[in-house]
Amino acid sequence: MEKRKNNQNKGFQKQKAKDPLKEIQTLIFNREFDKANKGLDEHAKSNEITPYFLYLRGQCFMGNKKYDEALNEFKKALEKNPKGGNFHSVLGSCYAEVAEEQTPDSENYQAYQDLALKYLEEGLQRGANYKIYRSYNTIADIYVKKGNITKALENYEAAIKDEPDDWWAYNGLGVLYQKKKEYTKAIEHFTKALAKLSLKTDNGRSDERLMEFANVSSQIEARIEECRKALEENIPQVLITTDEINAMLNSITITKPEESKEEEPNPNASNPIIKPEKK
After folding, report:
1. Pairing of β 268-269 and β 271-272
2. Lowest CB count within 10 Å: 14, 54, 109, 212, which one?
3. What are φ and ψ of residue 83, in 5° steps?
4. Beta bridge partners of 269
5. How far from each other are the two terminal CA atoms of the chain, in whole angstroms?
6. What is the Cα Rg of the chain in Å?
7. Residue 205 · residue 260 · CB < 8 Å
8. What burial letters (b/e) apply to 157-172, b meaning 16+ CB within 10 Å?
9. pLDDT tens for residues 75-133?
10. 143 to each of 117, 137, 193, 231, how far by Cα in Å?
11. DSSP structural state of residue 50
């Protein structure tokens, strides 16, 4: 069964390995979506339109928030490779982005969330194997909005299991534990999120991207302070000092992931997704 699942995604990985679209992939990673789209137009003149080509085209549209066009490209990719879990996942990620464009009280909001869950979870069942922590994060985010904390916790934990240096999942867990008033656990996870997020500042990223990470770090630090104050007010015998928080940071062992500027952009959206690297 496992062998069959891996075979279903072999085309996705093989095409990425010998990718004649490497420069276009890099443009997408650098968020130069219009230039990437022009490159795809040129490529299409003399090359076969493959599922991976359609995936890249969809990423360009999604990066420019042209979600109808993105959904159309991802659906065509899935039609060409209906068994591929990765193409289910990216379609689910796009539906999650569309849901975020709706107001929470609109009739389409829950419908798009449900479509996102359907394709993301089916992608995992079909053996999606490209940065699946992003799928788990997006699924968790949706369950948070639906009020299913148990499912949200499960999926954030699954994201960390797949990618131990994933700051987003640690932050998500911190938020959930803060809501549950388990402040010590919340501080532990927020602290880990800060440590993992610090890795993003040393990876050849743009100034705009680094500013986004700095803003997110400030928000996490503010949440740590909120939790500390709550502990001081409600459980004075379990105070956590700044020195103890720093000790937590220093005790975390981080393996710096190897990344390249040619890394493919996130379908996860809830993230694998092209969007700011999360709050």
Report:
1. antiparallel
2. 14
3. -95, -10
4. 271
5. 37
6. 20
7. no
8. ebbbebbbbbbbbbbb
9. 999 999 998 898 999 999 999 999 999 998 888 999 999 999 999 999 999 988 888 99
10. 9, 10, 20, 27
11. -
